Amino acid sequence: MPILRPLPERLLLGPGPSNAHPSVLEAMGRPLVGHLDPEFIALLDRLKAGLRTLFGTSNAMTLPLSATGSAGMEAALVNLLEPGDTVVVGVNGVFGGRMAEVARRAGAVVTTVEATWGTILDATEMADAISFVRPRVVAFVHAETSTGVCQPVEAIAQAAKQVDAMLILDCVTSLAGRPVELDTWGIDAAYSGSQKCLSCSPGMSPVSFSDRAIEHIQKRKTPVQSWFLDLSLLAGYYAGAKRTYHHTAPITATYGLAAGVDRVLEEGLEARFERHTSAAKRLIEGLEPMGFECLVRAEDRLPMLTSVRLPERVGTLGEAAVRTRLLDDFGIEVGGGLGPLAGAIWRIGLMGENARPEPVDRLLEALHEILD
Length: 372
Ligand code: PLP
What we know:
Layout lengths: L10 E3 L8 H7 L9 H18 L5 E5 L3 H12 L5 E6 L2 H12 L3 E6 L8 H11 L3 E5 L1 E2 L4 E2 L3 H9 L3 E5 L11 H4 L3 E3 L13 E5 L1 H8 L12 H8 L12 H17 L1 H19 L5 E2 L10 E5 L2 H6 L1 H12 L1 E5 L8 E5 L7 H15 L1
Parallel strand pairs: 1-13, 3-4, 3-5, 5-8, 8-9
Antiparallel strand pairs: 2-10, 6-7, 9-10, 11-12, 12-14, 13-14
Helix pairs in contact: 1-10, 2-10, 5-6, 11-14, 13-14
The site of pyridoxal-5'-phosphate has 14 residues, from α3.
């Protein structure tokens, strides 16, 4: 028997991956070229320019990292932090917690500012911690996928600026689904993932570093602890007139990401944001009459990830059992809760290609069949 056998078609309405558009899958079936082939380097350069538009930046060092969003996170933290450096990290979900852990492992002295999962970080508490610690780096998550909270950026960015701290923003779930404006906000390092609102296959992490971040990296006293993620080494492959081998870039995944970014640019960012907002509205309007309640208050909700507390009927049937029925009988994936919210919520993603009325209606119809 072969290892690779037929796979079911799923409607991916969990926290990621989302369904890829056929143009992305078509791109991934194109012939391989070498990672130093001039055609591939030219494609990479066009992709870097496209990613700059998505990130709202003119940062030269904007590139598709050859690994998942977690590697983007590590790249941001390990390049900007040296052992003994101070960092303030906002934690109101899994991914803020992961940032703090990565920073600790990089030898940084970490101060966390916590908020209840499902609520935003308090800008005053963040500002107080920042002015007290005067850290080298401030880091937080824009779109916290474990809870569905969208973090306002500007007030925290302002506090970081006052003490001249560098700012890292996790845009894994927000990029191409909500406005991301790195230059306007004054972000020094940001990263995303290919599998969320870009609707590509998992495995790539668009990252962007400001000129100030690059200068800082060049002045480091200690080498970046990760060879693979050391930006000054990566630069030899991704930038400059003459490109040299650093690692063998994932050619196929890069084609897919390029096709995904092309689709975003063709659609236009504003239209895409609007599509995410109206899909989320349709979902919530369908779920609330069934007894689902939003975890996050309206003004702090992410459009691409709706987290809902479950009605009694789902509890009676068993929340995991209902998700299994959705998957087995209807081919629909939704996500369960993580950490303290495990068993208490579902996370329903309407990301990228799936932020449309048809996927929403398919889910609502399936839920009516199971629960009514
Ligand atoms: N940050 C956030 C906000 C995420 O949602 C995720 C993944 O879900 C990550 C980081 C890590 O990305 P990956 O799973 O691609 O490594």
